[in-house]
User: Which sequence fits this backbone?
């Protein structure tokens, strides 16, 4: 039981993510989390503005159900399956983050410096969250998938487009982490 | 009732991503700093096992639960949309520290300010839909 309550190592977690993908494929569907963002647009009436949102969203109810489950899973994991262990980050990472003004790195899942309400509702903080979300939503649809659709499913299915997309994920991610984050937070 | 299996897969997914710490902003930062093998191990082992699994599903012509042939849609052939869209996504991923799956999961962990990020992601998707025909694909 102790090993369940502690953080799971990568060689347990990775294969379990494969299992999620295989279950969804076996159920006749596919593993793609960002598609739900498009479905939400359609439910909100975006079909009035673009063909891209004119589809029968009810055919995507299964995927919205996965999202609902994921939210419940997140709740269960932190409330019943965690012993409050800190994230075992590389000490270098912790030091680098301190220089950017992030304290207690790894004691929670997310930095309060970004996600605590006080910061999230400041003008700078709100801009960070909105820009970050916008880039994810715009980029994932432009690229035709996110981590689940391209990095996990696409690569598993040996799709060259997915490899190009994942290289893109890293170009953007490295640019943000190494060049932009120090400008935003220093 | 036919949705219950999807609910369970979602719950399982949410638990795995929290317990693996893949939902953590810090783990994403550490990954892009190449300071830990953790995230590479997760994605790498998921993909290696995924390649073997999908190969086996095709090889043994496994039928889906509804008895249909299992088909995975090949992605459209292109370069520019994947490299550009992917880079835009990567910028957001490293800033928010969360991709779409973890965004939903983190709501369940009690980080309600993530709703702002999700709302902005829906807006980003909407704007892509508006501009789709003007963008190079």
Assistant:
């Amino acid at each position: 039981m102790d090993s369940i309550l502690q953080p799971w190592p990568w060689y347990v977690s990775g294969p379990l993510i494969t299992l999620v993908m295989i279950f969804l494929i076996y159920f006749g569907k596919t593993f793609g989390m960002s598609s739900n963002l498009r479905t939400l647009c359609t439910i909100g009436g975006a079909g009035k503005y673009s063909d891209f949102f004119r589809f029968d969203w009810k055919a995507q109810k299964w995927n919205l159900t996965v999202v609902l489950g994921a939210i419940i899973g997140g709740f269960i994991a932190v409330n019943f399956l965690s012993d409050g262990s800190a994230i075992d980050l590389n000490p270098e990472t912790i030091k680098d983050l301190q220089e950017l003004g992030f304290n207690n790195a790894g004691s929670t899942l997310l930095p309060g410096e970004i996600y605590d309400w006080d910061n999230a509702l400041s003008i700078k903080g709100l801009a960070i969250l909105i820009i970050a979300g916008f880039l994810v939503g715009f980029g994932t649809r432009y690229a035709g998938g996110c981590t689940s659709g391209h990095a996990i499913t696409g690569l598993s299915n040996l799709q060259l487009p997915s490899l190009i997309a994942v290289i893109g994920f890293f170009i953007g991610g490295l640019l943000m982490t190494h060049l932009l984050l120090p400008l935003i937070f220093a | 009732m036919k949705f219950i299996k999807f609910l369970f897969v979602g719950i399982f997914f949410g638990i795995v991503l929290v317990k693996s710490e893949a939902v953590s902003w810090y783990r994403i930062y550490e990954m892009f700093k190449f300071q830990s093998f953790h995230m590479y191990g997760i994605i790498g082992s998921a993909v290696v096992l995924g390649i073997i699994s999908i190969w086996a599903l095709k090889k043994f012509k496994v039928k889906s639960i509804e008895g249909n042939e299992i088909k995975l849609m090949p992605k459209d052939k292109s370069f520019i949309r994947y490299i550009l869209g992917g880079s835009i996504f990567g910028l957001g991923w490293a800033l928010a520290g969360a991709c779409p799956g973890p965004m939903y999961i983190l709501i369940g962990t009690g980080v309600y300010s993530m709703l702002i990020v999700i709302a902005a992601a829906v807006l980003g998707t909407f704007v892509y839909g508006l501009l789709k025909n003007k963008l190079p694909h």
Notes: Chain B has a mean pLDDT of 96. DSSP finds six helices and no strands in chain B. Residues 38-59 of chain B form the longest helix (22 residues). Residues 67 and 108 of chain B are 34 Å apart (CA to CA).
